[in-house]
Amino acid sequence: MAARQSGLIIPRVKLGTQGFEVSKLGFGCMGLSGAYNDPVAEEDGVSIIKYAFNKGITFFDTADVYGAAGANELLVGKALKQLHREKVQLATKFGISRTQSRDFSGMIVKGSPDYVRSCIEASLKRLDVEYIDLYYQHRVDTSVPIEDTVGELKKLVEEEKIKYIGLSEASPDTIRRAHAVHPITAVQIEWSLWTRDIEEEIVPLCRELGIGIVPYSPLGRGFFGGKGVVESMHAISSLKTSHPRFQAENLDKNKSIYDRVNNLAKKHQATPAQLALAWVLHQGEDIVPIPGTTKIKNLDQNIGALAVKLSEKDLKEISESVPADDVAGGRYYNGLDHFSWKLANTPAKDSKIST
Q: Of the residues 4, 23, 74, 232, which has the fewest C-beta atoms closer than 10 A?
């Protein structure tokens, strides 16, 4: 099935209720620095960011932990020098410190006020910008009251170093308590056809509080891009070595899911990737997914998903094609289940855990 063409205007939407306007489709920059395969050359990384911007994507997502020694932020910063900074919505994150291993072992989560302060200064320097549009806590530090972390973020807003505050993989209790300290603009969390555990608790809460939702891995970490994506993965890709859904036995079982989505995609004159992304895009105006890619052709295909129109009946049919019980393997890397939103509560303000 040929991909839909991407020659269309990308709409703009409000992310959250604080007036933050972004492109309906964002771009996740993590993969450019070698999250799943080898890093791309700097020139190529800058080129694809510029290409995305020229196509109408203005919302770019990075983090201080992506790539060795902040490589992804450095790359994004270089690309920004060739764009109109005031037209870009830049998101980055703090909160994870880890070793350089490709399987994400040795991850440490930090959320103390002094750590927040040190991270923003380092990110501003690497990105070579005066402010960050959206600054996320990447993972929740369960030893620090969320009020302390967001309290420091609130100071950064007042100092105009950041414009908006976000959380990633936060629990309902953490989201509600954080929002009471300072309005949370967006929650970034995994959401795709085969990862839907946020739909009963997180999505309704965000809508109650007026918080936008930024789905990461909306294509199932590339799974819905097709079996060619999986077959071309580097042998030591973190997906193949550490992600349960991509390990041999589970992957064989999950291929039937891809086949079902592929059959439905043909009916909608789209590719499986476009249908899977369109399904996410249709979850609401407050939803802004951030698929990433290292290839222009895949970026064009992702933009083409905006042209796929789905009715309520279509959405139901697509949803039912991927029952949760049919997905083999957990959604989190081996050994990192404790970084899920379901376990992301923090101590009460008056009962900080000593570390």
A: 232
